[in-house]
Amino acid sequence: MQYLLMLYVNQAGWSKLTPAEQEQGVAAYSAYTGALTKAGVLKGSNRLQPTTAATTVRMANGKAQVLDGPYVDSKEQLGGYYLIDVPDLDAAISWAARCPAASHGVVEVRPVWVM
Amino acid sequence: MSCDESDVSAQRTTDAVARRSYGKLVAFLAARTKDVAAAEDALADAFASALADWPVNGCPSNPEAWLITVARRKMIDAARRRRSGEIASGQLQLLTEGLEVAAGETTIPDHRLALMFACAHPAIEPGIRSPLILQVVLGLDAKMIASAFLLSPAAMGKRLVRAKDKIHQARIPFSIPERKELPGRLEAVLDAIYAAFAEGWSDPGGTDIARRDLSAEAMFLGRLVTELMPREPEALGLLGLMLHTQARRRARRNAHGEYVPLSEQEPSLWDAQMIDEAEELLRRASGLGAIGRYQLEGALGSAHVYRRRTGQANWEAVVQLYDALLLVCASPVIAINRALALAEIHGPKAALEAMQEVAADPRLTEYQPYWAACAELMAKTGAYGEARDAYEVAIGLERDPAVRRFLQRRLSALPS
Q1: Which residues lie closer than 8 Å to B150 by C-beta, 6 or more apart?
Q2: What separation in angstroms does the CA of B410 have from each of A58, B352, B391?
Q3: Is A25 helix (H, G, I), strand (E, B) or coil?
Q4: Which residue of A has its CA nearest to B393?
Q5: For chain B, N or C: smaller number of CB within 10 Å?
Q6: B199-228: b or e for each residue (b if 16 or more CB lie within 10 Å)?
Q7: Nearest-by-CA chain A residue for B395
Q8: Which of A24, A31, A93 sits opposite B396 (nearest CB)?
Q9: Element (DSSP H or E) covering residue B362
Q10: A2 close to A42: Cβ distance less than 8 angstroms
Q11: What is the mean pLDDT of residues B161-184?
Q12: In chain B, which residue's Cα lies nearest the Cα of A21?
């Protein structure tokens, strides 16, 4: 069963960290990614650019409406994701708890719709 | 008991009664019918009535009896509404009789132990026994239990309901097992209590209120079992083990919130009173002449305290205790700890060899302490590249940010 772990974090927090803390943070994520890979559950993952780089598009009355910025503006933003394949929700939650984002933000666990 | 006619005081009284007597009341209400869920519902209604009634009419002199009377009425009403026909009236009669008898008594008999045995019955799935006991004996809510056990609240709720249905439908007895089968059945109860303790323990910073409370709740249950079964050595052993562990809680973090391993903890920060009580319990247990897992783990707690307080290495004794522990309950986790103790006597190579025996166990691939232990031993043999890889995995598997940072410091301290 595939689950998408969505990492919601305060993106302003990153720039407030010292370079040493940033390095430690990056290392924690890379170790986490490594552990997922080693366990053979990782299907894909990416870190996203900040929401200042986001653009929203919608068709209204047949016309495209293009806006700068994210769809929802809130303190915590989607900053990245991991797509994992594990037997059940319990396993997905236990991986989510290990994600560094769970300590400085939140991790939303969503089962993938099976077609 | 008397109290002021105020909402606050009524709330306080109900909270106090809930804390002290919840399980007793559930056990009593469900003893006849085996319907734990119905007993809990009725009791919840009774508590709600108390909050409405007590501020107006004053707190009753015997709050437990008051709650039992109200809950009993609610249970009978609910049973009447729910069922009809011959079977139902038979059950209703049973229910009414059972509860009538008790209404006359001033003290409510304590069936909590029997309730715990029902919750940890072999017919109940092992993984849900601990949450079930926390809920029905202590009245903790499913959401909080779910967080502590890292499960979704919806899933935890469903599993708890299913387990209660099982008790009811299969008529799982509310009784203390016969002498012959007692050891195994008691072990299941103790395991469930220890599982709750371990979940609470995994929040070393004590920042997560739900988790921290769980250790305290588990110790309350452990104490309850020793009070109700004072001559069971393993029950004493478990309480001793929990006290030894809990005594070191504060010392696991320094002033900056960073993780401090046992070998670097300041023994003066340990809770001496808890350690004394643990030692006394373990002494009492050993006098009862039946060794077991919890007494051995408690003895390991004693050995660590002795070594750190006196500065005298006692690794031979520690390894022997692990050997004994492996005989009563073979687990790869014990094998890892044994290997780490072995390293202190025969060096890291011997320890790594000993660890090879369990390395193939699939349960270890996602077990952080295994990778941390490998990394530490490999680093000591000078295999820095391998140590680095193992630390990486350990860091990736760790939940606790403070432990993660500790492992990262170890990793970056490796010579390149």
Answers
A1: A90, A93, A94, A97
A2: 50, 19, 8
A3: helix
A4: A35
A5: C
A6: bbbbbbeeeeebbbbbbebbbbbbbbbbee
A7: A31
A8: A31
A9: none
A10: no
A11: 90
A12: B405
Cα separation, B141 vs B92, whole angstroms: 28
- In this prediction, residues A41-56 reach a mean pLDDT of 94
Nearest by CB to residue A28, choosing from B152, B365, B395, is B395
CB contact under 8 A, B398 and A94: no
Three-state DSSP at A43 gives strand
The first and second tokens of residue A3, run together, are 């689950």
Mutate to test the interface with A, among B145, B149, B366, B371 (most CBs of A within 10 A): B366
Give per-residue burial for A39-51: e unless 16+ CB within 10 Å, then b: bebbeebeeeeeb
Higher-confidence residue of A45 and A61: namely A45
Higher-scoring residue by pLDDT: B212, B384: B384
Mean pLDDT for all residues in chain B: 87
Res B103 pLDDT > 70: no
Contact between chains at B150 and A90 (C-beta distance less than 8 A): yes
Q: Residue B37 in contact with residue B165, Cβ under 8 Å?
A: yes
Please report, as a single letter, which amino acid is at residue A22. Q
Distance (Å, rounded) from C-alpha B281 to C-alpha B239? 8
Partners of B408 on chain A (C-beta within 8 Å) are: 24, 27-28
Render pLDDT for A87-103 as a digit per residue (tens, 0 to 9): 999 899 999 999 999 99
B314's enclosing H/E stretch is: none
Q: Alpha carbon of B179 to those of B117, B175, B185, B186: distances in Å?
A: 13, 12, 10, 10
Is residue B138 packed enough to be buried (19+ CB in 10 Å), middle (13-18) or exposed (0-12)? buried
- Closest to B395 (Cβ–Cβ): which among A31, A93, A94? A31
pLDDT at residue B106, as a whole number: 59
Would you give the DSSP letter of residue B364?
A: G
Q: Do A31 and B399 touch (CB under 8 A)?
A: no
- Provide, as residue numbers in chain A, all residues whose Cβ is less than 8 Å from the Cβ of B397: 35, 98
Q: Three-state DSSP class for A2? A: strand
Give the SS3 label for residue A66. strand
Mean pLDDT, to the nearest integer, of B282-309?
Answer: 95
Q: How many CA atoms lie within 13 A of A107 on its CB side?
A: 22
Which pLDDT value is given to residue B162?
95
